From TrEMBL:
Family statement: Belongs to the class-II aminoacyl-tRNA synthetase family.
Listed Basic and acidic residues bias regions: 13-23
Protein name: Histidine--tRNA ligase
Localisation: Cytoplasm
Catalytic activity line of the entry: tRNA(His) + L-histidine + ATP = L-histidyl-tRNA(His) + AMP + diphosphate + H(+)
Gene Ontology BP annotations: histidyl-tRNA aminoacylation
EC number: 6.1.1.21
Domain Aminoacyl-transfer RNA synthetases class-II family profile: 35-391
Length: 493
């Protein structure tokens, strides 16, 4: 250990944020809150009720993320309580739901339809767009065995994305089922777990590598541009062709895709059962009015198959954005879900049908910010303090504006006029209010529309002309102050 490692941190060094835990300023906070309000509004409209659970759960309630004795924080953030039991911050919003349903038992009516929104925590390596703390917004139905319940989740997810501003062609929800995949794997003789996993991983790269790259990974393996070699699943040519025929069965309509899948999945029992699942979902989607462009059947979707027991679905943003490097790219996945009939059984031994859909609020907010669609939050009207010895006039005017329902603040610093104007600009203020001795004597206020003033100032060439014109500035009677400010704010829109 070096001397540097043993030295105490300075005050400046102490001011450091843990990696993967984002700070959020007002615009992003309000954008996230707006997304939650809009999406949960859709869930409520579909008849779901709110449920809020604690941030902490006993670690053994988190299923595959249960810490072992030697690694209590593997995958989760865990602590021991005073009974020496491990508690962990929730990894998602579904495990707490399963625990709640198991505890409630027969007192909880079924189907139980709930929605929830809140932060979740994952003890994973953070990276670009990958956080250890982030928000999710879920809806789940517990106790409904029919695949119409899955179709409802999918159609409702599409409704929620449209509600937050997504248009036709800007997003898609892709649907597949575990049983159909199992049928294909059985049909090509992939019985070993490592072989099946290699096939699934290869299919998951279809968008990035295309058919030829996936074919290599299904066969002997693939060498990438850097020279790194990835061992393949070891399938023969006929088996590779069969898996690719399945993965590429997607067509323009759900009916055409199902027809292609019927040919590609063979005659295994699992394949037939999976096809029947998707046919039932497609029929219900038609009844729910889900547009073909919003929801597609895509056999390449392989998300979370160790967790889901039936249909799986993934929501993806399709709109391309231009990054700082000038290159166009897609945001990608912003949510998904599926059927998980075995989750409650971990607590009760009873298989309980369950299906759910989750939207990643933090990821969706970040995507909208990149696309420039989070908007700008309206700042407060700033009342300038022109009498630093006695700010009571500025304070009373700000209070009057707030009583009238306007967002307003009196300047609290000790600076002069120019810094106060700069402060109002930084706050995004629509206007400032100024009251000096002249205005007090006349019973008036001077209001400056900062947006209109900035536009008019562009055509002014000299300081003298600017002082003479005073762009965007108007003096009105104190009684007309609120109405004038409301007009300015409405005009800025």
């Amino acid at each position: 250990m070096s001397d540097k490692d043993t030295q105490p941190l300075s005050g400046k060094d102490l001011a450091r944020k843990p990696r993967g835990f984002p700070d959020k300023r007002e615009t992003l906070v309000h954008a996230q809150a707006g997304l939650v309000e809009t999406i949960t509004g859709v869930y409520r409209q579909w008849g779901f009720e709110a449920l809020e659970t604690s941030a902490f759960e006993y670690a053994d309630a988190l299923g595959k993320f249960l810490p072992d004795d030697d690694r209590p924080n593997a995958g989760v953030f865990a602590i021991q309580d005073d009974d020496d039991q491990w508690m962990a911050l929730r990894y998602d919003l579904t495990a707490p739901l399963a625990r709640f349903v198991a505890e409630a038992g027969q007192t909880l009516g079924r189907p139980f339809r709930r929605y929830a929104a809140g932060p979740v925590w994952r003890n994973e390596k953070p990276g670009p767009g990958r956080f250890r703390e982030f928000w999710q917004c879920d809806a789940d139905t517990i106790g409904a065995p029919g695949f119409h319940a899955d179709a409802e989740m999918i159609a409702m997810g599409a409704d929620a994305l449209r509600a937050v501003g997504m248009e036709t062609g800007e997003f898609v929800i892709r649907v597949n089922t575990r049983r159909l995949l199992n049928g294909v794997l059985d049909g090509v003789g992939a019985t070993a777990s490592d072989t099946r996993l290699a096939i699934l991983r290869a299919l998951d790269k279809m968008d990035r590598l295309g058919s030829s790259g996936v074919a290599d990974l299904l066969g002997k393996g693939r060498m990438d541009e850097s020279g790194d070699f990835t061992k393949g699943a070891g399938l023969g040519a006929a088996e590779v062709k069969a898996v690719l025929a399945f993965a590429e069965a997607g067509a323009k309509t759900r009916a055409e895709t199902l027809a292609n899948l019927s040919k590609a999945t063979g005659s295994t029992d699992e394949g037939k059962a999976g096809l029947a699942e998707l046919e039932a979902i497609a029929l219900a989607l038609d009844a729910l009015g889900a547009p073909e462009g919003d929801v597609v059947i895509d056999p390449s979707v392989v998300r979370g198959l160790e967790y889901y027991t039936g249909p799986v679905y993934e929501a993806e943003l399709l709109r391309e954005v231009v990054g700082e490097d000038g290159k166009a790219y897609r945001i990608g996945s912003i949510g998904g879900g599926g059927r998980y009939d075995d989750l409650v059984a971990r607590f009760t031994g009873e298989t309980v049908p369950a299906t759910g859909f989750s939207i990643g609020i933090s990821r969706l907010a970040a995507a909208l910010a990149i696309m420039g669609e989070t908007g700008t939050l309206d700042g407060p009207v700033v009342v300038l303090n022109l009498d630093r010895g006695d700010p009571s006039v500025a304070l009373s005017i700000a209070a009057e504006l707030r009583r009238a329902g306007l967002r307003a603040e009196a300047y609290m610093g000790g600076s002069g006029m120019r810094p106060q104007m700069k402060y109002a600009d930084r706050r995004g203020a629509p206007a400032v209010v100024m009251v000096g001795e002249d205005e007090l004597a006349k019973g008036t206020v001077t209001i400056k529309d900062l947006v209109a003033g900035a536009e008019k100032a562009k055509a002014i060439k000299s300081n003298e002309e600017y002082r003479e014109a005073r762009p965007g500035q108007v003096e009105v009677a104190r009684a007309d102050m609120v109405a004038t400010l409301r007009g300015i704010i409405a005009a800025q829109g």
